[in-house]
Every structure is written in structure tokens, then in C-alpha cells.
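Quick check before the chapter quiz. The format below is the same one you will see on the exam, so make sure you can read both the input and the output lines.
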Amino acid sequence: MTLSRRGCRHPLSIAPMMDHSDRHFRFFQRQLSRRSLVYTEMITTGALLHGDRDRFLAFDEREKPVALQLGGDDSRDLAACARMAWEAGFDEVNLNVGCPSERVQKGRFGVCLMADPERVAEAVDAMRRAVPIPVTVKHRIGFDDLDRYEDMERFVTQVAAAGCDRFAVHARKAWLSGLDPKQNREIPPLRYDDVYRLKATRADLWIEINGGIRSLAAAAEHLERVDGVMVGRVAYEDPFRLAGADQRLYGEAGAGPSRDEVIAAMADYLGARPPEVPAGRVLRHLLGLMAGCPGARRWRRTLSEGMHRPGAGVGVLQAARDGVPREVLEARPGAPS
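Here is the expected output.
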């Protein structure tokens, strides 16, 4: 992996997910992979400039490497917020040009900005001038009728000319009318070939593929054609699928962590949390840890019923663990052969 202003290149990253990618989720993900890049939720420039910036910018050093994703369209505001991110210690700033939510549409940013590559290029240039850390862009292959491969390539070309050399591409278009954000993650067909073609055309850029990737095996296949893979919902719904990432995708020796080791680390984290942080804010991220395994239903039920009770804490996690078979707790993802 190359070190430069581009930063350390990551074969795997965990996508920014609204209502999920908080600091507790990021710490949990770090127990599964020490090397993958994790993101904040999308934070709007208005929230940082006029809201509780300390809360939005807070993170634990043990989460690193971590990127802050920004939503906005004003280059001066984005530059100011990028500087806040750098000063707070983030490793990267990413501009959201992919979100199709109604709130984002009203603000005329997110995926709408694919129709205005000059504005995105201006924003990227301003952010790069403001900070020494990487400035990257996450976008879709298009939206509505602006969805030809040539439209995406034109967008990337103009933004790359402003100095962005890393693009995370969600391989689905978005429909701004008729589909909500959840449907836009599932209904438009995946067009992986468009992302592969972009990488073949722009070999000078770091191209990362996103959308519908639910295993390390699938990630490894994509890495034959592109530079990086971004995974989203699987990291929340079935997170242990990613536990061997450092071995399979980064070449580390040995085997990945066991679920029991992950639980032990999260128990320490939960026990050391500030008193104003309810246990449920941490434990909700662990509900999928046993997905597909014997004892999964009991695990989810014990956490769900206990995490919101007064005084909930490490005991709830321990009680959930006690309902899982030892062989599930101790299993490790094997190193690649």
C-alpha cells in the first residue's frame, strides 16, 4: 500500500451508514478488522458549523483509521468543515455525492451533485487546499436519466482534475422520485461492469466498488478488477463475515478474532463508557454478531430485552454470551490457504 497525501490505501472499507456508523459501531468494527477504513455517518456542513461540533467530531483513537464524510455543496463551508476534521484527527475527508434522501435533495447536495461536476470539483479543490489529509468522493453511477457510463466518466474526469484521486462508486443508479433511500439500496440493478470499466479507463485513479457485496470471498473477486471494496449493510447485519479481512485482504498471518474475543473487548469498552452513554447505544450494534449461528435468536433476544433497562451494562452482554454454544464463541475465520 502506498503512503502519500492519498493516505494509506485500503482494500476494504466500511461504508458510512445513517443511524449506524456512530463511534460505538466503529469501535466494534475495529475488533473485527484492525486495518479496514471506517467512516462516520454523513454529517452536513450546517450541523458542524452551527451545531454541536464536539459531539459530531468525537471519536476514540482506537477507531483509526477513520474518515469523516461530509454532506454539502458550498465550497467554503466544506473547506471549513474539512479543516475541522483534520484538526480533530480524522485520517480522511469524504464528500457525499451519492445520498438520494429527500432531505438531501432539498439541500441540493448528495447524488444531485452528479449533475454539477464543476461544483464538486470546486469543492474538492477548496477542501484539498484547506487540509493535508486525503479528500475523496463517494458517488453513484448516476441518477434518474443521468445514468449513462459516459455521464459518470465525465463526472469523475472533472472531479479528478481538481485533485481527487480516490472514488468510491456505488454501482447502482438512484431514482430521486418514487424510491426511498432503502429502496434505492436494493431496487436499481447493480452495474458492476460500469465500475470495472471506469477503473480500466482511469488506471491512474484509486477506484473502490460498493453495492451488494456481502462476503470477503466476493470482495476478493472484485479486487481482481478494482482497487478497493466498500461494504455496507453486511457489516451491520452479519458483521462476523468480515472478521478475517486482515488475513484475507491485507495478507496478515494467522487467523482472525473469535466472537468471544470480540465480546471481551466490547465488554471492556462498555464498562468504561461515560455514565451518560446508555448501554443500548453500544449493544445495539452487536445484535448481528451471531447471525446464522446456533444460539443467534437467544443472543438477540437477551440483548434486545436487557439493553434498555435501567442500570443495563456488562451483565447484559455476559448473559447473552452465556446462551451461545462454546464452539460458536471460539470459532475463528481461517487464514487464506
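If your answer matched, good. The two ends are 22 Å apart (CA to CA).
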